[in-house]
Write a structure and sequence with these properties.
mainly alpha; 4 helices; globular
Length: about 110
């Protein structure tokens, strides 16, 4: 039960971060909180798949430039899966990946 609560909290926080990013950055828009939750889930799934395919190069502990570019690509690709909820340009994806990277530096993934 405790794992489920942590899982739900992580997705709610991720959705709120996406909504905040969409509100302050150009080139990215999300359709409501439901859209943000769906976008967070799609981005998490795509990120997981990419991490499994590329291994340690894009793990949360080894982000660096490869992790940054990978995060931007994942955010950009998500728009093709859920175009009714997420609209993002290349610049928007890069800016979003940058802001998410900064947030991840201050809020460890294990807490979220």
């Amino acid at each position: 039960m405790r794992e489920w609560i942590g899982f739900i909290v992580r997705f709610i926080i991720s959705a709120l971060v996406l909504m905040l990013i969409a509100a302050i950055l150009p080139g990215i828009s999300i359709q409501g909180f439901t859209g943000a939750l769906i976008a967070a889930a799609i981005i998490a799934i795509l990120g997981y798949v990419v991490e499994k395919l590329m291994g340690d190069k894009v793990s949360p502990q080894n982000r660096g430039i490869v992790g940054f570019v990978t995060a931007a690509v994942v955010i950009y690709l998500a728009k093709f899966i859920i175009p009714e909820y997420l609209s993002v340009s290349v610049i928007g994806a890069l800016l979003a990946a940058f802001v998410i990277g900064i947030i991840d530096a201050f809020v460890p993934t294990l807490i979220r």
